[in-house]
Write a structure and sequence with these properties.
The structure holds 2 protein chains of 2 kinds.
Chain A (H helix, E strand, L loop, with lengths): L13 H6 L2 H20 L6 H18 L9 H30 L7 H5 L3 E6 L5 H10 L3 E6 L5 E7 L3 H21 L3 H8 L20 E2 L6 E8 L3 E9 L2 E20 L5 E11 L7 E6 L4 E3 L2 E10 L3 E8 L8 E6 L3 E6 L2 E11 L3 E3 L2 H7 L3 E3 L3 E8 L4 E7 L3 E3 L2 E9 L7 E6 L7 H10 L2 H11 L8 H21 L1 H11 L5 H27 L12 H16 L7 E9 L2 E9 L2 H21 L3 E8 L4 E8 L4 H17 L4
Parallel strand pairs in A: 4-7
Antiparallel strand pairs in A: 1-26, 2-3, 3-25, 5-24, 6-7, 7-8, 8-9, 10-11, 11-24, 12-13, 12-23, 14-15, 15-18, 16-17, 18-19, 19-21, 20-21, 21-22, 25-26
Helix pairs in contact in A: 2-4, 4-7, 7-16, 11-12, 11-14, 12-13, 12-14, 13-14
Chain B lengths: L2 H37 L5 H20 L2 H22 L6 H4 L1 H7 L1 H25 L2 H32 L11 H23 L5 H20 L17 H35 L4 H5 L3 H33 L8 H23 L4 H24 L10
Helix pairs in contact in B: 1-2, 3-7, 5-6, 6-7, 6-9, 7-8, 8-9, 8-10, 9-10, 10-12, 10-14, 12-13, 13-14
Classes of the chains: A alpha+beta, B mainly alpha.
Amino acid sequence: MSEKNIVTSKKPSLFIQFLGSMNLAVTLLVMLAIASVIGTVLKQNEAFQNYIIKFGPFWTHVFDTLGLFHVYGAAWFILVLLFLLTSTATCLVRNSPSFIKDMKHYSETMSINAYKHQPYSETYAVEGFDEALAKQTLEENGYKTKVHHSENGNVTVAGMKGRWSRLGYIFTHVSIIVICVGALFDSDLLLKYRQLTGQLAPETRSIPLSEIPQKSWLSPNNFSFRGTVNVAEGQSTDVLFLPYGQGFLVQKLPFSIHVKQFRIRYYDTGMPKSFESDVVLTAPDLKKPIVKTIKVNHPLVYKNYSIYQSSFGDGGTKLKLAIHPLLSPYPNALDIDTAVNQVEPLKTPIGTFKAEFNDFKMFNIVPATKEEQEKTGKKMHNNGPTIIFKVRNDQGIAWEYENYMQPNLQDGRWFFMTGMRTEPSAPYRYLFIPADEKRSKDRFFKFLALLNNPVQIHQYLKDAIPKSKNLDEKTYNLQLKLLQQLMVLFRDKGFRGIDLFVQKKVPQNEQKKVKDYYLSQTSFALQMLYLEFMEKSFPDKHITGNNLSDFDKQWFEDALNAINSLPSYGPPMYFEVKSFKQINATGLQITKSPGKDVVFLGSGMLIIGVFILFYVRQKRVWLAYSKQENALTIAGKDRKDFPETKIEFDQLVEIVKTNLKVS
Amino acid sequence: MNTLNSTIETNYENKNHLIREIIWAALVAIGSFMAWQEFNALMGLYEDAILVGTTIGLIMLGRFWPSIRTLSYFITALTLLALWSYSIHHNQISANEHAFFLRFLVSSQSAFMWMSALYVMAMATYFFALFNKSEFTGKVASTLAWSGVAFGLVGMLVRWRESYLINPDYGHIPVSSLYEVFILFTVITTLLYLYYEQKLKTRAMGGFVMLVVSAAVAFILWYTFDRHAYVIQPLVPALKSYWMKIHVPANFIGYGSFSIAAMVGFAYLLTDSALKRNPNSEFAARMPALEKMDDLMYKAISLGFGFFTIATILGALWAAEAWGGYWSWDPKETWALIVWLNYAAWLHIRMSKGWRGRPMAYWALIGLLVTTFAFLGVNMFLSGLHSYGEL
């Protein structure tokens, strides 16, 4: 910033010298760079809780005090920026006048001796001096010239090239100031001031718009803002939410946006191709509403507001659900009508729950299997709609679910998948409910209800296993009772339940034997129950152990797998999606950015300045004729020395010598 | 030779020169016009403007640096061969597996393989020429580097076409994925180096610069064979914009220049150390003068800085249009700023404080690390808007 060879008329104060010093400038540049590195390595503006998990309370406190979680808005960061601005401005003010003078100055009035002391200079004896020819020679070589006649008869033709070079310095440094001023227009400094003086308070609760206090609202004539709003299809908005501090502010808009439709178009790979919203903008001063489809990279610009496609989500898809109680002895599903973003209270015999419906996904696109690719030629497979919801008990513990509406093919069999997790970061663990011959879940829930019903189990087992003649009544009943109990254990905790029971009730040395016996009896009972169940379900098929179809055998195994996992499925309920009516919401980002044009003006100046700085070289030459000595001094000086400077000077000397016939 | 004769000869050469320039300008203009005729249905106003700009830019570049013309003629011939080969196979992308020319020479994948091999051979030959003091070997090295550039550019042009052949929906200029920009990086770096090679009339630094290019080749090969990154993917919505066509190449002129500066810095340090150990060092005698390398470092960094400034500003313009804000402190943006600040500091120290030599060479090398992190590290370690994982 400060140049070594600048001649300043008076020595500036020590403080000004420090502000304009190169050392300070480079230090500030490096500080900004380091601060920026911190800002990218530490995730910014996250929820405070996440930081505590990551760094522990002590370091979180330290980092927070240093403002490291909001580096780019931290006071010290702003201070560094301000210092850099002041430093740049000081430099500019100090150097510009002399630079501008330098641009006009040809230094044509110096003494011959002074020319001889230029970085490059050669002197030749001459017969005379053709001033016009000298002038012409320099001009032909791209120099602007100025001629000076001394009183003693000496003549100097001064030439200068690339005088605009100095503008490079001025442009680049002014541009930095312009860009920062533009950025300042768009910063939240004004909001910070209003918050400090108590006129403004961000809202941190999640409450309906009508309940948000006036202190969190911003009027339509707010100078600059950038916020987002989610609008469901068929809905309108005239407000915007600006994230601020730990909460948000509500920005009132001077217009209203109605969203007709949101859609996603897909490539054949299943990747989204475009996100589009059909919007209608109405404003009091508009005669006709503006109707436009906005897409990513194609915003709607109205006055100094820009409306962008920014995200999307569910806008409250209407859902018809059936809730299957998993412990009920009868198949008695409960039908409910609800919607995404709603919470349904559930009173059950095992306690009260809340079902929170968080999301609905129309498509779940996964890579197709090799066989499917060969068959259909499609690279991607759509698993169909899912609902994502949480079931929360009265202690606040939540289980999160992802339920598929349609069955999916796995190893050639159809399953209804349902995923469950208890931690938001964990992957879902899936339960596979086998589909029956009608590709429905009916058989599963009927069979499950049977297993939940000890009375019916008893009856079925009795029907399935008639008492043999050589068995007395007591033993037979004891055996039935054992099987029935095993069923209860199995239903309670799966095969593991039987294991646990044996571990608890049987002496150690007998455990293995008893366990093997119990497990085989459990399998036997389940098979018998299933056969009896199938026989009663399809009376005309006369199903026995020998004519059970492969499908029905496989179904039984799959159903047992599923039932075996039910105890770890969370609250005993399964949510079936009967039907839905999808309603999308589009996430719009709306900005008013008065600083944008200022920043772009500065950016333009910066580019021009940088290229002038690097590629316009300021060169000076002098052809100084001394009448007394009858000698011509050819002198040259570049503002910056390059290896080619000398070569170019020598070339010019040759040209001058040829043209002026100097030998 | 008397004066009169030499004047005539100069005139004759001038005339010849002029004719060649006119032919060049005419060919570029005709080529662009034909491209426009063929594809204007797919182009918007801004794309038209970019085409006009590119045409003028290429004509100027060819005048300024005549070697570009020869390169362009070769590239055009090879690319047309690829297009012709696809067209006789009914424009089916699968032709790249069985059509002779495509399979072994000019399908984008084959061209990239040729490119990779040629770069590595160029590096080896440059070093061989340096230790062999052989002018001829040096010429071979340059030819290899030029050929690598030619195959790289042919591959990119053909890949552009191939993206449309796979599915017109997928069609896009191949500067959208990490794989594609790596190829762009090797092409631009080598090309910039070749310019300085001609200008400074020395091939001594070729091996050093090609070290970076070869490292990039190693990455490309790993990315190809281990990650199958060469598969042409359709564009995510955020990238569907004409801005990509100018933002990305401008950026890579910056990255390429910074890499050259770093490798020249490396060569500088080696030479300087050799001279310190032994003022009559044989190695140092073969390298260019220290001041020349120092100056080249400065020139490369100033060129890179200029284009990096343009690229970052273009990025801000694009961000304003796509994300609703010209600056979001997104990790990639922020790292671009860090790179920019780093070189701004470098330039200030050199221009105002007059620092030269070793410290600046070290700093240029560190600059390459910073640049590499901005280019690669951000994508690998930090998430943000530039990861394109989401809308």
